[in-house]
């Protein structure tokens, strides 16, 4: 790509050396630099990209974009000094990849709980309607069935642009992003031209990173306050009326608001909800009339997730009746209130709930078909938001028996995690077992016929992180192996 054109529209403080006529790649990680690359020095949380400029040059970088003059040992390299390399990167990356999001239907979904379920639902509903869809999120990057791993839920600017380019090259016209608050604060989506942005809910999480709920809510709000967005075509913000952040996001967005609710009248709202152990049914009121909805997705929060997904695709122009038909066929989402198939006379669910709100809703979801006890296992991560631990246990106390354990203890001791959790317990029917495998075995060993067991926290994950190593771990496999010997 012509280098002059690329840098022309950028406010540059100084250029030392001369820019090559053209460049072939852009990169933020020195380890991935190839010959003739523009390398951006980004200041990170753990290291400063400026310290890696020399190593980028050794790998073939011909242009270094930095926030200060650097002593570089190279003749043929241009140093471009800008005020802020992340902003320069957003600008250049969009120019370099020629604004791939512009002519696509781009959807972003954010919120504390439900992002993965809603993005998956949207992705599957689009594909079942016969169109191509790409999805970027916790599971990685799914380009119409082909899965690529990614380090983050919301990837860095360059990875994001490359995913959009891949989708464009494959003629996939829909791209669905699961958007994290970390990604929004770090500007990982700067320059992405969203058509519909959707909000699930905001509840206590990630305060180790954001500090306060206000800051966390502000971070999520960045997805809706996209004042610089191109409004030459209609754009929509799909917002959850049941969440206390609804008014704030509705007032700050320049997009048309479409609302949804499980509690009050809205553009899309549910009544007559019936929770069954293998499906959920409800009456959905919509701008296109009333529809009897049936889904294989279980639990209270999935009614809200279904409303969010249908409202989002309605915003893109899909017909509600067709969406309701397609929804029936969509299987449960892995690790989201997923019923484990077993011949034991028990109901076992795996759920990703790892916030107080999600724990409460997971337990409430199974109450309608409770015959004996509800046994609940939950752990919390080490070296992450500690303030939510007592409230997680408090909500878990809704169950008849609780096992408190760990969920990726990292470098923190079992005792430290369990002591924080125990502070929130509201009754005496519980056990503290730091080793998660032992904890799963314990709950299965005390289970009786007709009990409902929920393993919370791990969801689709198949590992446990201890120190900095990922060890294979599956709540499901451990539970099934005990069930086989006991029942
Ligand atoms: C705290 C945080 O957000 N960290 C993110 C941040 O990393 P960082 O600031 O530590 O980056 P760094 O490692 O210091 O590197 C700084 C710069 O030097 C460069 N570098 C570094 C080393 C080297 O040898 N050469 C080199 O050039 C790096 O490419 C980078 O440009 O920028 C990286 C690139 O975008 C992210 O991968 C990384 O996410 C880490 C892995 C992480 O764990 N983030 C979590 C907190 C996160 O973002 N989570 C959310 C999901 C939350 C949810 O559950 O909802 C997510 O979106 O994944």
Automatic annotation (TrEMBL):
Summary of the function given for this chain in its UniProt record: Catalyzes the addition of an amino acid to the nucleotide precursor UDP-N-acetylmuramoyl-L-alanyl-D-glutamate (UMAG) in the biosynthesis of bacterial cell-wall peptidoglycan.
PANTHER family the UniProt entry points to: MUR LIGASE FAMILY MEMBER, UDP-N-ACETYLMURAMOYL-L-ALANYL-D-GLUTAMATE--2,6-DIAMINOPIMELATE LIGASE MURE HOMOLOG, CHLOROPLASTIC
Keywords assigned by UniProt, alphabetized: ATP-binding, Cell cycle, Cell division, Cell shape, Cell wall biogenesis/degradation, Cytoplasm, Ligase, Magnesium, Nucleotide-binding, Peptidoglycan synthesis
Family stated for the protein in its record: Belongs to the MurCDEF family. MurE subfamily.
InterPro entries membership: Folylpolyglutamate_synth_CS, Mur-like_cat_sf, Mur_ligase_C, Mur_ligase_C_dom_sf, Mur_ligase_cen, Mur_ligase_N, MurE/MurF_N, UDP-N-AcMur-Glu-dNH2Pim_ligase
The EC number(s) this enzyme carries: 6.3.2.-
All residue ranges annotated as the Mur ligase C-terminal domain in the record: 335-459
Name under which the protein is recorded: UDP-N-acetylmuramyl-tripeptide synthetase
GO biological process, one term: cell division
Organism: Jeotgalibacillus soli
Residues engaged in binding UDP-N-acetyl-alpha-D-muramoyl-L-alanyl-D-glutamate: 30, 152-154, 180, 188
Pathway in which the depicted protein is active: Cell wall biogenesis; peptidoglycan biosynthesis
Residues that, per the record, bind ATP: 111-117
UniProt PTM comment: Carboxylation is probably crucial for Mg(2+) binding and, consequently, for the gamma-phosphate positioning of ATP.
Any single GO CC term annotated in Swiss-Prot or TrEMBL for this entry: cytoplasm
Domain Mur ligase central: 109-312
Cofactor: Mg(2+)
Subcellular location: Cytoplasm
